[in-house]
Amino acid sequence: MASLSPPRATLDDLYREEGQAELIGGRIVRSMPSGDLPSLVAFEIAVSLREHARRTGQGVAYADGTGFAIPELPSGRESFSPDAAYYLGPRPANRMRFVEGAPTLAVEVRSENDYSPSAAAEMAAKRRDYFAAGTLVVWDVDPVAEQIHVYRAADPNRPTTYARGQVAEAEPAVPGWRPLVDPFFV
Description:
Layout: H1 11-16, E1 21-24, E2 27-30, H2 36-56, E3 60-62, E4 68-69, E5 79-80, E6 84-87, E7 99-100, E8 105-109, H3 117-133, E9 137-142, E10 147-152, E11 155-163
Parallel strand pairs: 4-7, 8-9
Antiparallel strand pairs: 1-2, 3-6, 4-5, 6-8, 9-10, 10-11
């Protein structure tokens, strides 16, 4: 007897989903909530981005949980929900809906379960998806090592790493933003 596969999920289905999730390959993929440290690190980065956006009058900073809808990628991905983001594009006509397009800067803060080889492979695949969708820079933030690995679409396999005592950046995604690393690792 043939088994029936569930119907392909859509962005409309994702809008009705409670909690954080992404749409990948026609499936809603739920995300586990972050712990104390990763959440605080993501929040500090989002606050710094918001201050920069307000100071320069450029872009919008987003905190954890914001959805970005994109045309379906070869991987099947149709959305992102980074831990923090910066966006230099048009706001959605219906501001209650997802941002239409990829974030200019996507920030992914590692959680407790993001330190295995399989998690590293998943994170690398997600970075490839970000770049395929048009994201210019992805920050892979490691709250345990207190490091920020900055990946750029122009050279996606050679990150620049910043640690305590240094000033980070996200060029060319966030021009002129030069935050100190230390305040992010609370």
